[in-house]
Amino acid sequence: MGTATAAGKNGPATAGAWHNWAGNVTAAPARVVTPASVGELQEAVRRAAEDGLKVKAVGTGHSFTAAAATDGLLVRPQALAGIREIDRTAGTVTVAAGTVLKDLNQALAREGLSLTNMGDIMEQTVSGATSTGTHGTGRDSASIAAQIRGMELVTADGRVLTCSEKENPEVFAAARIGIGALGIVTAITFAVEPIFFLTAREEPMGFDRVTAEFDQHFAENEHFEFYWFPHTGNCNTKRNNRSQGPAAPPGAVSAWVEDELLSNGVFQAVNSLGRAVPAAIPSIARIASRALSARTYTDIPYKVFTSPRRVRFVEMEYALPREQVVEALRELKTTVDRSGLRISFPVEVRTAPADDIALSTASGRETAYIAVHMYKGTPYQAYFTAAERIFTAHGGRPHWGKVHTRDAEYFARVYPRFGEFTALRDRLDPERLFGNDYLRRVLGE
Question: What is the pTM of this model?
Answer without folding.
Answer: 0.94
